[in-house]
Amino acid sequence: MSEKKTVPSRRGVLKGAAVATGAMAVPMVATAQTTTLRFQSTWPAKDIFHEYANDFAKKVNDMAGNRLKIEVLPAGAVVPAFQLLEAVSKGTLDGGHGVIAYHYGKNSALALWGSGPAFGMDPNMVLAWHYYGGGKDLVDEIYKSLNMDVASFLYGPMPCQPLGWFKKPVAKVEDMKGLKFRTVGLAVDVFTAMGTAVNPLPGGEIVPALDRGLIDAAEFNNASSDRVLGFADVAKNCMLQSFHQSGEQFEILFNGAKYKALNGELKAIIDYAVQAASADMSWKAIHRNSEDYIELKKAGVKFFKTPDPVLRAQLAAWDATIAKKSGENPLFKKVLDSQKAFAARAGQWQNDYTVDFKMAYNHYFGRGAKKS
After folding, report:
1. For residues 127 and 278, is the Cβ–Cβ distance under 8 A?
2. How far apart are CA 69 and CA 38, in angstroms?
3. What is the average pLDDT across 253-282?
4. Is residue 260 part of a domain?
């Protein structure tokens, strides 16, 4: 009978070799595969808003290492700006960056995250309602009713937007009547109620239309965007302060299937990148908008405060608009009721607790301020 030979296992050989050489065994690690997502913004490449989209993508990419990479294209690279939602839902794009009010035509309730005075809430308070007062669940409900397979993240409270750019300053409510005016979202209904002829053009088309006389006046968003888009080249009067879009935010969209396929860690990275980008955007906006405001003044632009009667007319037009939309659309009323309930509580707290910062500013920089 022959002696049976024992064949050592591969693991035993490796272990023995490690012991013999005094070295530690190094486990084999599989190389992680990079998931690349193609995004498109709704902004021209030179706009600060497109920069915000890239800022968000960089935060995700930096934290995810080689596991996830978001690439951002400017408006029109794949689809027109107002077709972003469908493109992301269908998977033509993996994601996008824009504003939720751009989807107003699909369900008017979506504009309540951008248009109107939000019952006196500022943009950050609207975000507080969204994340802690039920707004996020309502967005998901609306998208589900539209069969839009997307994951939506709202972030980035925008500074209060100007009434807009005019060939002549607005002195009274009657000056708004008959104007061919660019705006979007529920502001379309508000300005229509005030007698303007509204044209909801995408951002990149506004200044050329204003230059050619296709529109008489227009609003977009902020000093930095308005400056780079060239508003000062075609109009020299800008009316500051308005209720038409005083509480707007940005929206980051992911294709639903692509987002669900990500593991929990990558989803967490996206969630925290949204929050970090929101804060970063707020700080950058203060810095850049204030710089560009000065540059626009140097370029000969004259800024005027929107007269209070015009602001009150906006509120009256808004009341008529939301009454009409609430009767037409149950989801619109549902969102509005949720927003109003949150605003009644949060607004009282904000107004009672917040000091008048203008008093301190005027003390140091206003007329009669002490010269140091």
Report:
1. yes
2. 9
3. 98
4. yes
Residue in 220, 193, 217 with CA at minimum distance from that of residue 318: 193
Each residue's pLDDT tens digit, 302-351: 999 999 999 999 999 999 999 999 999 999 999 999 999 999 999 999 99
Query: Does 245 belong to an annotated binding site?
Result: yes
Contact 265/159 with Cβ under 8 angstroms?
no
Q: What SS3 state is found at 251?
A: strand
Using alpha carbons, select from 277, 289, 280, 225 the residue that is nearest to residue 252.
277
Does 163 have pLDDT greater than 70?
Answer: yes
- Which residues touch 253 (CB under 8 Å, ≥6 apart)? 84, 85, 88, 95, 96, 97, 98, 150, 151, 152, 153
Is 51 one of the annotated binding-site residues?
A: no
Sign of CA dihedral 360, 363, 365, 371: negative
303 labeled part of a ligand binding site: no
219 is in an annotated binding site: yes
Q: What crossing angle do the helices spanning 330-353 and 123-132 adopt, rounded to 10°?
A: 120
Token couple for 282 = 């707020």
361-367 average pLDDT score:
93
Q: Give me the number of domains the chain comprises.
A: 1
Question: Would 185 be classed as within a structural domain?
Answer: no
Distance of CA 84 to the CA centre of its chain: 13
pLDDT per position as a tens digit, 167-212: 899 999 999 999 999 988 788 899 999 999 998 887 778 999 999 9
Residue 76: which CATH number? 3.40.190.170
Helices (H), the chain: 10-21, 48-64, 84-90, 123-132, 135-145, 187-193, 206-211, 223-229, 231-234, 256-260, 264-298, 308-328, 330-353, 357-365
Backbone angles phi, psi at 275, to 5 degrees: -65, -45
Residues spanned by the domain of 150: 35-157+247-289
